[in-house]
Amino acid sequence: MTPTFTLHRGDSLTVLQSLPDHSVDAVIADPPYNSGGRTGNERRSTSARGKYVSGDAQHDLPDFAGDNRDQRAYLVWLSLILIECLRITRPGGHLLVFSDWRQAPVTADALQVGGWLWQGTVVWHKPVSRPMRGGFKAAAEYIQWGSNGPFDRTPELYLPGVFSASQPSGRQRRHITQKPVDGLLAELVKVCPEGGTVLDPFAGSGSTGVAAVSSGRHFVGIELTEHYHQVAHDRLTDAQRSVAR
Amino acid sequence: MTPTFTLHRGDSLTVLQSLPDHSVDAVIADPPYNSGGRTGNERRSTSARGKYVSGDAQHDLPDFAGDNRDQRAYLVWLSLILIECLRITRPGGHLLVFSDWRQAPVTADALQVGGWLWQGTVVWHKPVSRPMRGGFKAAAEYIQWGSNGPFDRTPELYLPGVFSASQPSGRQRRHITQKPVDGLLAELVKVCPEGGTVLDPFAGSGSTGVAAVSSGRHFVGIELTEHYHQVAHDRLTDAQRSVAR
DNA sequence: CAACTCTGTGAATCTTCAG
DNA sequence: CCTGAAGATTCACAGAGTT
């Protein structure tokens, strides 16, 4: 059976409220990090591009929305999102939320405020990253892991706690903060049983969906930006075709 | 010139209060984690051995003290420690605090409450760790990195953000939560310039001191337990002798 | 085909400058 | 003095191209 996918376009919180109870097995979320948002002072307000793209970067990827909250607002907003995700997820289902080092603590808080059981922190090690003179470079992102009540320990599934993988580059790259499928997302979707459904409330260019569909899982995604909604749709259609073949 | 070391025996907070202002260049602290201490309910109350030692472990290492606070108390207590450390550290000096995944957020909070500038999170990847059925294994510990005001960016020092190293085992192992010198502590002490002084308020078996002294840094350590105070003293004396040779 | 060179890049961070 | 925008700086590593 070919895995199916649904791509909603709209505000994440609004669309989540329309989804039925216990309709997915796992949630994988990559919210806008609002990095540098420790204080209003440090937060550069205008756009994501200015924050995440080097001045001389050759690519010309479009901007994305929703990256301008301060840390208190981020906690409240993310908590509301995760409360809805809990309702939509079946008991025993998993939650994975990406963050950078600045937002890791507040993300763990939001996960627990949202009613999830905090199960641990998974590390995404990025071997290619900028050096830092006089100290340690920021070479990792963090994935907070939670479950809707106790999770099922019967499956023969043993996942590592640290993943090492590089961001897609060149023509492979469709989104500023795109995550790699091989070595990362393809592993993470394994917390959803085959034939189950994965939800991504911030689908972006759809990498999570590609990982899900390519490995026999259904996918439900939400994306606000029209451009990325279209990109995700195209990539998912391709992935689905590859599986069917 | 042979690096010197001083080992105080006593309660960390009390001894710290007796140390002079701006007398060290870097603080590397490995406080008792109080793991499982998110809630009183989850915390196993009796001793560190029950928490950190597998039932079938062959070794017979002594217990250590101070591992029975709940999370609110841990925040307050660690903040007080780090406030004192800030006073003792010269402006521009570095702070590194170990934690497991449960305590990572509260450790980042305590660091900032203590007046340090939070600079990032360093990952200690432990490749050999217990597998976790049905999910991700806990294969990492976290090191919160701070500085006393802006840190010096002139030294030609470029450190990675993720370190991979295994816990000492067998006869090498002198403490339940001992950290490896090679591949971890030997790298971390580099945030202190050669000829400078490293402070460890929870010296344990003295691994941080061994890394410091072996690489030409002076060391000040504090340890409460008589047994570990003696172990650390012996290991440091050996390390000093090796350098002098 | 393996080994090597070369070029491009980066969820970054700091400094400078204008308002 | 405080705030925000723009420009400069950094080097380990991936990946393409070449010997």
- Helix and strand sequence of chain A: EHEHHEHEEEEEHEHEH
The helix content of chain A, as a percent range, equals 25-40%
CATH topology-level fold name of chain A: Rossmann fold
Low-confidence region ranges of chain A: 36-47
CATH class of chain A: Alpha Beta
Number of domains of chain A: 1
Radius of gyration of chain A: 17 Å
Q: What's the CATH superfamily of chain A, by name?
A: Vaccinia Virus protein VP39
| Mean pLDDT across all amino acids of chain A | 87
Quaternary arrangement of the chains shown? homodimer
Total strands of chain A: 10
CATH architecture of chain A: 3-Layer(aba) Sandwich
Largest sheet of chain A: 8 strands, mixed
Distance between the termini of chain A: 11 Å
Largest interface: A-B, 42 and 42 residues
How does this structure look, described?
Chains A, B: InterPro entries: DNA_methylase_N4/N6 (IPR002941), DNA_methylase_N6_adenine_CS (IPR002052), RM_Methyltransferase (IPR001091), SAM-dependent_MTases_sf (IPR029063). Chains A, B: Residues 24-232 form the DNA methylase N-4/N-6 domain. Chains A, B: Its EC number is 2.1.1.-. Chains A, B: Pfam families: N6_N4_Mtase. Chains A, B: One of its GO terms (biological process) is methylation. Two copies of one chain form a homodimer. Chain A is an alpha/beta fold and 245 residues long. Chain A has seven helices and ten strands. The radius of gyration of chain A is 17 Å and the shape is globular. In chain A, strand 9 (197-200), helix 6 and strand 10 (218-223) form a beta-alpha-beta unit. Chain A has an eight-stranded mixed β-sheet with strand order 1-10-9-2-3-6-4-8, sandwiched between helices. Chain A has a single domain (5-244), classed as 3-Layer(aba) Sandwich (Rossmann fold), CATH 3.40.50.150. The longest helix of chain A is centred in the C-terminal third of the chain and has 19 residues, at 226-244. The model of chain A is unreliable at 36-47 (pLDDT under 50). The interface between A and B is large, with 42 and 42 residues. Strand 5 (135-136) of chain A pairs parallel with strand 7 (158-159) of chain B, so a sheet runs across the interface.
